[in-house]
């Protein structure tokens, strides 16, 4: 059996007979691959969350000379809160994606004659994928906010005018916001088509 015959096919509920693919047919392997990618990216971001959590010890001195530029306990508290919220969004996104993958795989295994074909409600699939994408985007936003606090803890407060901190925060916000615009645009396109 070649690779094209083994790829799982999906027939949405709008084609209840499932006897032949309609214009709505697609492959579940595309959805599973997308969900796998989302879970993998969320896992990498979760590692970043735990790195940030390791910096939540009070009393750390920044690399700037004046001690007045050291972050106070309030910055450490905000860092901890944003890291936990970020972790919660990434966990939500990963669990939704894993649930969708499990549903697709279970539906694919129901029909003995057509092991690689599943009937899936398009609205539920879209809603689940969008929920997972929104969770990932929100996790990224809170992770960026927490990384700003990490930078302030290590390089000095932005309010002190620490140039390394300003440059680091500027690069972080510019690059991540650009990537999020691309990701959100792609997710919206996939949701609408």
Automatic annotation (TrEMBL):
Residues 14-26 have a biased composition (Low complexity). The chain crosses the membrane at residues 84-107, 127-151, 171-191. Keywords: Membrane, Transmembrane, Transmembrane helix. The keyword Transmembrane helix applies. Residues 1-26 are annotated as: Disordered. The keyword Transmembrane helix applies. It comes from the Eukaryota. PANTHER family: MATERNAL EFFECT EMBRYO ARREST PROTEIN. This is Maternal effect embryo arrest protein. It comes from Rubroshorea leprosula.
């Amino acid at each position: 059996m070649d690779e094209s015959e083994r790829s799982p096919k999906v027939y949405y509920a709008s084609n209840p007979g499932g006897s032949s693919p309609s214009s709505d047919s697609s492959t579940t392997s595309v959805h599973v691959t997308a969900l796998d990618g989302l879970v993998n990216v969320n896992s990498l971001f979760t590692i970043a969350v735990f790195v940030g959590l390791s910096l939540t010890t009070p009393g750390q001195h920044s690399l700037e000379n004046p001690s007045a530029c050291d972050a106070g306990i309030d910055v450490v508290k905000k860092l901890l809160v944003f890291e936990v919220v970020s972790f919660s969004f990434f966990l939500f996104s990963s669990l939704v994606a894993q649930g969708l993958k499990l549903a697709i795989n279970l539906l694919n295994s129901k029909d003995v004659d057509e092991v690689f074909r599943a009937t899936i409600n398009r609205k539920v699939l879209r809603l689940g994928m969008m929920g997972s994408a929104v969770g990932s985007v929100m996790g990224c936003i809170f992770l960026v906010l927490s990384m700003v606090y990490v930078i302030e803890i290590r390089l000095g407060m932005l309010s002190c005018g620490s140039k390394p901190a300003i440059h680091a925060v500027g690069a972080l916000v510019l690059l991540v916001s650009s990537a999020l615009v691309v990701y959100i645009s792609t997710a919206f396109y996939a949701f609408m088509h």
